């Protein structure tokens, strides 16, 4: 079923119960695959070496009690009932929390922010109150964050750490899930055979899994939910059987008293075993991260009434079986498959492998999504993003990231060759992400929800204490595998911060070297400079939202000619998940009307899908045409006090695909085509035989334009027929002399390497080589 059609961003205001239940069913396959497969490895990881299963059953009952209360407090109470409410216009995840904070306190890391961005419909704050009053909760915190750049950088680093740990989890989760599922083969063959079979089988499944990513999740998505549902029914049924068959009184172990007895007996060893217990909540973050595909209510229903009880029954069943089996003949020791009746082990093994693949698929897709968000917010080099579904929102594939994840996943599998070290690594990644969410959530409570600081302190103290306890138990195993997510996160964090730092410095250089309007007036007013205008539209790519970029003067200096129509195009991201098509473009003039210089700012949210080049070009031209049609005459007078020197007035213009009442563009090869007579047309057929296509702007029936606007539209039509040329800067960024050694390394080597190996602007990827012109510039930052 099409998730986009049923998502909360669509016209359905109030979902029916059938819609909610349908989304809840679908969320089983997309959201809960990782969490549902955790019983495969939790007990085995917990009893790996720190504690042993004794005749008194104090250990197994204590572990069961810890699992029950951990599942209840973290996924159920924290995420389902609290964190899910902190959505960013229906979107969730680490960057959603950071985006909320950026909008409620001006701490955005995006350099080209405009006040006009606050008028976006999704930018609206969750409360009408203004944080300028001393009486409003959070005023002092907001003021402190806005004043201190260091705190803003620390907040960004905190969000990036959580993001990097999610990427690290994308490496570790497929490895441990598939490894644990395949480990059931150990009960069906000898130890000698198993050690030669297990790792190759796991590697083969992982290679197949990553090799199929380019087809997209939507092609197999319809079977994901049934697989996870079958798995949940399987483990819950086995759990109920084990409870009644082996130990009906196991429910008593849910009492917190057994936690006390467990910790009293095991002491330090029990604390160290918490690193394995926390794996029972791995995948909980997906409930929040994948919120954009579903609704808050559907995710709450799925977890509360399906996933949560199934997991509790599964863990209770395993504990009931193990409480009556203290000496296990198999070297498998304490694991999931030991408690499975021998008659159904092979069918359960098959379902477990399928469920592990589904859980791995969810975290891989989530990794792609979070990389895209980082790219949109200027915190990761531009990479190739392939949208694998035209209907289902957010289904993307990133080749470079996919193959990197595969190689790292295979390296972890072959290097460790068991679930013990992989579980240590995965546990640290999982709990770090949760700690970051707790820290950001405490700020959201004060700044966005306008609650007292006491609520935030209570939240971070209660949940932070639990998570810090688990974090310390995971960190103590640094040398036993926990170093892997730390190393991976450090590498990705270094890449993200260096790219973000270099991007900011490059933008600051652009701002400081903007060309004055007087230079432009002199250029157009003098006939002795030999400047000529050529047919066509020249689109100059720039990061600036105001002023004339230095690349334009550099271009004119080297080639004293420019196009009949010049567009200064800025494609930028704003700290909201989506920008409505009717709010996509900001269009204005640069200089007097007769110069035919325009500024166009295309705004995208961090989850928006960028259009292909042809559609983007048409929307760009139509937005300018609509601006010309609706523009009111305005006498131009440069303002010498204006920093940009351009006296620009930008107008919000809808994309042509969403504005059926605005100007529409039609292109053909010159053959006559009939358009509806209810519209008026501005048609220009250029006399040059070299022009192969015909461009027409179709205006609304009620449109009334003056003579000058009609002439301007005619000239835009001729320019469009002559063709478009994209002029892009090819920058060489270097640190200025006298800079610190760290800055020189970051800019001259780190940022330069990333820039040379990253993609260009998304709309210019598939433009014909002949219509793209690169202008080299050296940036001294």
From TrEMBL:
Sequence ranges assigned to domain K+ potassium transporter C-terminal in this UniProt record: 536-779
Transmembrane segments: 20-40, 60-81, 155-176, 196-215, 222-244, 270-289, 301-323, 343-364, 396-416, 428-447, 454-476, 482-499
Pfam families: K_trans, K_trans_C
Keywords for this protein: Ion transport, Membrane, Potassium, Potassium transport, Transmembrane, Transmembrane helix, Transport
GO cellular component, one term: plasma membrane
Main location: membrane
Localisation per UniProt entry: Cell membrane; Membrane
Bilayer topology: Multi-pass membrane protein
Domain K+ potassium transporter integral membrane: 23-521
GO molecular function: potassium ion transmembrane transporter activity
Function: Potassium transporter.
Family: Belongs to the HAK/KUP transporter (TC 2.A.72.3) family.
NCBIfam families named in the record: kup
Protein name: Potassium transporter
Organism from which the protein derives: Arabidopsis thaliana x Arabidopsis arenosa
Record lineage: Eukaryota, Viridiplantae, Streptophyta, Embryophyta, Tracheophyta
């Amino acid at each position: 079923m099409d998730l986009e059609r049923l998502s909360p961003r669509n016209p359905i205001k109030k979902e029916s119960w059938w819609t909610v239940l349908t989304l809840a069913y679908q969320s089983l396959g997309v959201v809960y695959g990782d969490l549902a497969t955790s019983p495969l490895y939790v007990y085995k990881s917990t009893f790996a070496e720190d504690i042993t299963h004794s005749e008194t059953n104090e250990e197994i009952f204590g572990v069961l009690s810890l699992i029950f209360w951990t599942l209840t407090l973290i996924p159920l109470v924290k995420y389902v009932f609290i964190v899910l409410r902190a959505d960013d216009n229906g979107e969730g995840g680490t960057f959603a929390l950071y985006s909320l904070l950026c909008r409620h306190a001006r701490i955005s890391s995006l350099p080209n922010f405009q006040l006009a961005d606050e008028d976006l419909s999704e930018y609206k704050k969750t409360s009408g109150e203004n944080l300028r009053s001393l009486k409003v909760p959070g005023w002092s915190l907001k003021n402190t964050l806005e004043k201190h750049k260091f705190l803003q950088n620390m907040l960004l680093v905190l969000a990036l750490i959580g993001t990097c740990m999610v990427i690290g989890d994308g490496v570790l989760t497929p490895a441990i899930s598939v490894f644990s599922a395949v480990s059931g083969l150990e009960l069906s063959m000898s130890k000698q055979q198993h050690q030669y079979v297990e790792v190759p089988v796991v590697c083969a499944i992982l290679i197949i899994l990553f090799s199929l990513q380019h087809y997209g999740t939507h092609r197999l998505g319809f079977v994901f939910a049934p697989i996870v549902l079958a798995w949940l029914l399987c483990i819950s049924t086995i759990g109920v059987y084990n409870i009644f068959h082996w130990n009906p009184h196991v429910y008593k172990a849910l009492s917190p008293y057994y936690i006390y007895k467990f910790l009293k007996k095991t002491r330090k060893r029990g604390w160290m075993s918490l690193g394995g217990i926390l794996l029972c909540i791995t995948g909980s973050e997906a409930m929040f991260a994948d919120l954009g595909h579903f609704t808050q209510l559907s995710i709450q229903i799925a977890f509360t009434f399906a996933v949560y009880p199934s997991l509790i029954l599964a863990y209770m069943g395993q504990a009931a079986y193990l409480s009556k089996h203290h000496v296990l003949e198999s070297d498998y020791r304490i694991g999931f498959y030991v408690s499975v009746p021998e008659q159904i082990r092979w069918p359960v093994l098959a379902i477990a492998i399928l469920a592990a693949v589904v859980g791995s698929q969810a975290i891989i897709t989530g990794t792609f999504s979070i990389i895209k968000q980082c790219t949109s917010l200027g915190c990761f080099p531009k990479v190739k993003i392939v949208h694998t579904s035209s209907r289902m929102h957010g289904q993307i594939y990133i080749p470079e990231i996919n193959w990197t994840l595969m190689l790292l996943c295979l390296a972890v599998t072959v290097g460790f060759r068991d679930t013990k070290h992989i579980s240590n690594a995965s546990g640290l990644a999982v709990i770090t992400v949760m700690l970051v969410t707790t820290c950001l959530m405490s700020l959201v409570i004060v700044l966005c929800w306008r609650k007292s600081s006491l609520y935030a302190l209570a939240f971070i103290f209660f949940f932070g204490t639990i998570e810090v306890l688990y974090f310390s138990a995971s960190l103590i195993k640094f040398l036993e595998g926990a170093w892997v997510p730390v190393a991976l996160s450090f590498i990705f964090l270094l890449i993200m911060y260096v790219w973000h730092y270099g991007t900011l410095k490059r933008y600051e250089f652009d701002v400081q070297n903007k060309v004055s309007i007087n230079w432009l007036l002199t250029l157009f007013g003098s006939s002795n400079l030999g400047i000529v205008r050529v047919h066509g539209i020249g689109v100059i790519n720039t990061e600036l939202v105001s002023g004339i970029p230095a690349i334009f003067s550099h271009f004119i200096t080297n080639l004293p000619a420019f196009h009949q129509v010049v567009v200064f195009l800025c494609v930028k991201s704003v700290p909201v998940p989506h920008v409505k098509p009717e709010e996509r473009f900001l269009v204005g003039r640069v200089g007097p009307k007769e110069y035919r210089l325009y500024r166009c700012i295309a705004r995208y949210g961090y989850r928006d899908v960028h259009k292909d080049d042809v559609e983007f070009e048409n929307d760009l031209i139509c937005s300018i045409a609509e601006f010309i049609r609706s523009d009111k005459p305005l006498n131009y007078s440069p303002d010498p006090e204006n920093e940009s020197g351009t006296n620009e007035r930008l107008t919000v213009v809808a994309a042509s695909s969403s504005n059926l009442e605005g100007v529409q563009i039609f292109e053909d090869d010159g053959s006559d085509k009939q358009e509806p007579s209810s519209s008026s047309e501005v048609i220009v057929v250029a006399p040059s035989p070299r022009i192969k296509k015909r461009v027409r702007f179709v205006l609304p029936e009620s449109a009334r334009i003056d003579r000058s606007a009609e002439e301007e539209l005619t000239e835009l039509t001729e320019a469009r027929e002559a063709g478009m040329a994209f002029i892009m800067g090819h920058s060489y960024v270097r640190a200025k002399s006298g800079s610190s050694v760290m800055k020189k390394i970051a800019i001259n080597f780190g940022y330069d390497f990333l820039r040379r190996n990253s993609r260009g602007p998304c709309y210019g990827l598939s433009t014909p080589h002949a219509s793209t012109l690169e202008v080299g510039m050296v940036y001294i930052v």
